[in-house]
Amino acid sequence: MSERQESDAEAVSEPEALLEDLQHAVLEGNKVWLSETIEQLHPADASDLLEQLSTEDFETAVELLGGELPSEVLAELRDEYREDAVEVLSDKAVADAIDEMDSDDATAVLEDLDDERRERVLDELEPEDRAVLEANLIYEEDTAGRLMQREFLSAPEFWTVGQTIDFARDNAEDLPTDFYEVYVVDPMHKPLGYVLLSQLLRTERDIKLADIMETFDSDIRVDMDQEEVAYQFQKYALASAPVKDPNGRLIGMITVDDMVHVIQEENTEDLLALAGVSSADGSDTVWESVKARAPWLAINLITAFIASGIISLFEGTLDRLVQLAILMPVVAALAGNAGSQGLTVAVRAIAEREMEGKASRRAVVRETLTGLVNGLIFAVGVGLIAFFWFWKVDLAVVIGVAMFASFVWAGISGILVPLTLKRLGADPAVASSVFVLTLTDVMAFFSFLGLATLVLL
């Protein structure tokens, strides 16, 4: 081990140097340096650092740390790295880490385990903690029930500020690590309102919570999809929100740090879906990448043959006018890009709930008019280029009209396809791109070659 590695971790400031030191420590099995360094870093920085290691070195580092891997670091690891880490750790180490986590993070770790090992880990926990985590696992993935934590501070409306503060201090070990509000509940434990901690600390001790509480803007049920939960957090600018069971009783809370991950996850899924990819993680193997992309490429192959079938209908026209083959990709490429632009805007607007009611009709009108204007601009431009290239007025007119029609169609299909899929209950981000690109290609080829057959022959 070099002298630089033996020095205190605080002396290492450059990320690249720290990563190099980490790799050397793993190679030489220096558990002391590794443990001290990870402990001194912020959990998010420590997880980022570990994730830069190769898979083999990462697993070795986790094995070296063993039970000394901080639970906060384990919780911060991305799903695939956390799964690898849990696979390496012993049942006792996993149980100890879970015991130090809030229930939402602990549930995420348990999700990574197979049924047999999950039972072994749960057996290591206190009965009360086990019951809480088993209750969380009952709920479907990607719902509020899986995201929520069971630790929160609630108080009856007749309690005073002083009683609430004293209760929180006396029961500090049972409270979550981070929370921002006190939930005011009725005798049935149904939430009535909330008091911000900042308001609580500024108010005199003898004031009742009922006199200073605010009413809730959010309404999150335990079976609500995480995307809808994220929308409520964004809409109402929430730092945290209570989660209610089907009877309206308060059973947990969700904090904004969880929602940041959900929002990023949902946006990434939509982006990948638009590109025809179901997974794009840096740790994916070649086979995993192939499985994620090949199905979409197969669908695109089918749609490509559909477009080729349209072209084959005008084989005779292409044989007689070679200029059409030269110009044909121009029409298809521009129309496809126009359709993709409208589709991207539409999918984002649908995800942001900006396509409800009359807004959807306005969007259809807007995209149609956009297609008309862009179609006119590029029809004139492409027509002029075709004229000066081949010195044929009729060819320039044909490609100009085809370009105009293709742009209008691209604008309409780019907005109507995702809206239609949404009404049918399908995910617009997943299925829209295939339909839109096929429709625009078909229109581009059919309009261009069809007009050429009628006008030029």
What does this entry look like structurally?
With 457 residues, this protein is mostly helical. The chain has 3 domains: 139 residues, MgtE N-terminal fold (Alpha Horseshoe), CATH 1.25.60; 118 residues, CBS-domain; 171 residues, Tetracycline Repressor, domain 2, CATH 1.10.357. Helices cover 68% and strands 6% of the residues. A 3-stranded mixed sheet has the order 1-2-3. α21 packs antiparallel against α22. The radius of gyration is 30 Å and the shape is elongated.
Condensed summary:
This protein has 457 residues and is mostly helical.
Task: Give me some keywords for this one.
6% strand, three-stranded mixed sheet, mainly alpha, elongated, Tetracycline Repressor, domain 2, disordered N terminus, CBS-domain, 3 domains, 457 residues, 68% helix, MgtE N-terminal fold
Spatial ordering of strands, largest sheet: 1-2-3
Total strands? 6
Which structural category fits the helices and strands? mainly alpha
Whole-angstrom Rg: 30 Å
Q: Main sheet?
A: 3 strands, mixed
Please indicate the percent range of residues in DSSP E strands (runs of 2 or more). 5-15%
CATH fold call of the largest domain: Tetracycline Repressor, domain 2
Per CATH, the architecture of the largest domain is Orthogonal Bundle
Based on Cα principal axes, name the global outline. Answer: elongated
Low-confidence stretches: 1-13
**What is the helical fraction, as a range of percent?**
55-70%
Say what oligomer this is. Answer: single chain
- The helix/strand series, from N terminus to C terminus, equals HHHHHHHHHHHHEHEEHHEHEEHHHHHHH
